[in-house]
Amino acid sequence: MNISLIGFMGTGKSSVGQELAQNLDYKFVDLDEEIVKEDGRPIPDIFAEDGEDYFRDVETKVTEKIGSRDNQVIATGGGVILRDQNIANLKQNGIVILLQATPEEIYNRTKDDDNRPLLEVEDPLAKINSLLEERKESYQCTPYQIDTTELSIEEVVKKIEEIVAGSEFREK
């Protein structure tokens, strides 16, 4: 079984995913790192040189490959939900959990990170609000949702472990 963490950038997918993987003795997989390995370029370069559509094509190819493996905690990129096929790929062998946070918290967590090509705009908070609104419906692809705004990494990990323990995917 895999545990895939989806959600907007800055909601804690990577930091929570690493700790969760360690607790469960699973492999931690950062989807963005796998995309970089697959394509051979950093994500900002992929966006700048070939655009978002090309990036999403590579992302779909990588989710298909990764989704078929087992015993992984997968931290996805914020836009993975933009294609239904990605979610289907991630659900084929596990559970998908949405991590959320307020737009203000997302901004505070991402404002000093230069590796966020979608936020390289004049008003990043407005862009965050706009993207969250655009993606709102797509994020409803799973009933498992956790608001990380006021929680520590450890508290989020504990909530995920409780979800997994009570889900249809728990190991016998």
Automatic annotation (TrEMBL):
GO term, biological process aspect, one: chorismate biosynthetic process
The organism's place on the tree of life at top rank: Bacteria
Pathway assignment: Metabolic intermediate biosynthesis; chorismate biosynthesis; chorismate from D-erythrose 4-phosphate and phosphoenolpyruvate: step 5/7
UniProt: ATP binding residues: 10-15, 116
Residues annotated as binding substrate: 32, 56, 78, 135
Chief location: cytoplasm
Cofactor requirement: Mg(2+)
Catalytic activity reported: shikimate + ATP = 3-phosphoshikimate + ADP + H(+)
GO MF entry, a single one: ATP binding
Co-factor: note: Binds 1 Mg(2+) ion per subunit.
Residues engaged in binding Mg(2+): 14
Enzyme Commission numbers on file: 2.7.1.71
Keywords associated with the record: Amino-acid biosynthesis, Aromatic amino acid biosynthesis, ATP-binding, Cytoplasm, Kinase, Magnesium, Metal-binding, Nucleotide-binding, Transferase
InterPro entries per the UniProt record, alphabetical: P-loop_NTPase (IPR027417), Shikimate/glucono_kinase (IPR031322), Shikimate_kinase/TSH1 (IPR000623)
Keyword Cytoplasm on entry: yes
Pfam families attached to this UniProt entry: SKI
Any coiled-coil regions, as ranges: none
Keyword match ATP-binding: yes
Subcellular location as annotated: Cytoplasm
Gene Ontology terms: cellular component: cytosol
Function, in words: Catalyzes the specific phosphorylation of the 3-hydroxyl group of shikimic acid using ATP as a cosubstrate.
Subunit description: Monomer.
Family named by the database record: Belongs to the shikimate kinase family.
Protein name: Shikimate kinase
The gene coding this protein: aroK
